[in-house]
Amino acid sequence: MLQPLAKKRILLGITGGIAAYKGADLVRRLREVGAEIQVAMTPAATTFVAPLTFQAVSGRPVHTELLDTSAEAGMGHIELARWADLILIAPATADFLARLAQGMANDLLSTLCLATDQPIAVAPAMNRLMWQNVATQDNCRLLARRGVKIWGPGVGEQACGEIGAGRMLEPVELCNLVIAQLGTQNDAAEFHSELPVATPFPTGPLAPHDLQGLTVLITAGPTREALDPVRFISNRSTGKMGFAVADAAAAAGARVVLVSGPVTLKTPSGVERIDVESAVEMHKAVMERSRQADIFIATAAVADYRAAHPAEQKIKKTRDVLTLELVRNPDILAEVAALRSHRPFTVGFAAETHDVLQYADDKRRRKNLDMIAANQVGVAGSGFESEQNELHVLWEGGERVLPLADKMLLGQQLITLIAERYRLWKGEL
User: Fold this and answer.
1) Among 16, 325, 335, 411, which residue has the fewest nearby CB atoms (within 10 Å)?
2) 160 is catalytic
3) CB-CB contact of 381 with 387 (8 Å)
4) Global pTM?
């Protein structure tokens, strides 16, 4: 069996959640691909699974105490932090995420996270409402901005009997993510070639250099199609999702050009912003810049139609029925995807009220898109006019669910996935 994690050292942190039982299988899988494992448990975790279980599967003593009298100078947390190539917290409870976000160091595991300069990844596991809570989302967004990898959570049935986002990713999924993080490029690629196409990619933030040298062109917000000098046709888009994606792309090192419809949002740091109003204006701005872009992400909710003959003066209320003649707007996304030369990697969005996946995949195929991110609108707490969203991302032969989360965090997760698919598209992986 391939061992893409040979000689890699992983410190696995177990916190007090029911998903702690999955940790034993995770240790086994990581060892099978060559990793050396040490386990650190919080006091709460030991009430779910005995430390002896992890000692047996890891072949090493389990660490539970902050001040270890058997360690050099009695500071076992420093020795462990120096030893690890990666600290993985799985499961990561809402409580632990909160303490990690606040920089607390009141037990062994939280102290280890402060005492390392190596990557940290967390696999959230909690009730769906705890995951959706604004406090948890704020904590995850803060951690992601600090470079902590957020892996998951998954969607499905939970121990409490409810169904939704909050399940810890399965051990095989986490093992794959660790391989993608630490394995050599050749070994990781060979290992992943044996897996199904839908194997999840990392969903934490990218490092500042991961999109270095690339130009990412993004559209965001609604468009306004004038009926007269006062009225217009538009939609409920606020632009928050697109601005979150632009922020994440800039944080990953890309040169970001953001073409925005009329919104009241602050321009993300390091992003070049171009303001437009109508679909025709957005079309012109995009087509002038599309051939210079490496990646094009169309998050904007562009009006499909505009008035054929906008009135030069305000339309008066003189009739019971007013008939408007509408004509189709240019299809910006389809035109970019159809470019014959210097075509960027093209990502579309599909906002649907029903049959979301069917319509989204049809749109992907018809317009020859490399990826499409689908979301259902008209649902309370998600999509338009909401701080949160959830996406089902589709590409040829694969898909990935990004569960309900704060749009800033979701933008980081989406950019990570886009970057992975872009590298595969370019033949770099």
Assistant:
1) 325
2) yes
3) no
4) 0.63
> Across the beta sheet with 271-275, what order do the strands follow?
271-275, 255-260, 215-220, 295-298, 345-352, 371-376, 388-395, 398-406
pLDDT in tens, 385-424: 677 788 899 999 888 888 777 788 888 889 988 998 998 8
Architecture of domain 9-192: 3-Layer(aba) Sandwich (3.40)
> Using one digit for the tens of pLDDT, what is the confidence trace for 244-274?
999 989 988 899 999 999 999 999 999 999 9
Per domain, the residue ranges of the chain are: 9-192, 215-425
Q: Which of 113, 140, 160, 175 is catalytic?
A: 160
Q: Which residues contact 91 (CB under 8 A, 6 or more apart)?
A: 14, 15, 17, 19, 20, 22, 23, 123, 124, 125, 168
Fold designation for 215-425: Rossmann fold (3.40.50)
The Cα 305–Cα 364 span in angstroms is 20
More confidently predicted of 158 and 175: 175
